[in-house]
Amino acid sequence: MCDTVPVTVVDGDERSTVDVERGRTLRDALRDNGFAVYGSVSKHANCGGRGLCGTCGVEVASAPTPTHWHDAAAARFGYPRLSCRITVDEPLTVRLVEKVLWGQLLPERSD
Questions:
Q1: Which domains does the chain have, with CATH numbers?
Q2: Name one Pfam family in it (predicted).
């Protein structure tokens, strides 16, 4: 078994792949590789990866089965999953979502 797993990160138009140690949380792996999982305020005031604040949301294609209540709701209703509640055990593709205040997503605009 390989010690690392490829994680492809989509950030706007940028796409890159990083090798992540198997068993790490996605939140920690993203932060360690310089990706922003928090908004401007929540990057300073968050729960530290305990699944309490709901601000480290990312979109994950083919994500592992949710085990945390927030992620179960996210999977059911189609909003971002908490990166702190996803353990990297298999290849993943992750899309970072734009946030403005306290991890909030920007509202959809109809022009």
A1: 4-96 (3.10.20.30)
A2: Fer2
Quickly tell me which residue has 């310089």 as its tokens: 34
pTM of the model: 0.77
Backbone φ, ψ for residue 91 (5° rounding): -55, 140
Average pLDDT of adjacent 10-residue blocks, the chain of 111 residues: 88 95 96 90 81 85 70 72 90 87 57 56
CB proximity list for 35: less than 8 A, separation 6 or greater:
9, 11, 96
- Per-residue HEC secondary structure of 20-68 comes to EECCCEHHHHHHHCCCCCCCCCCCCCCCCCCCCCCCCEEEEECCCCCCC
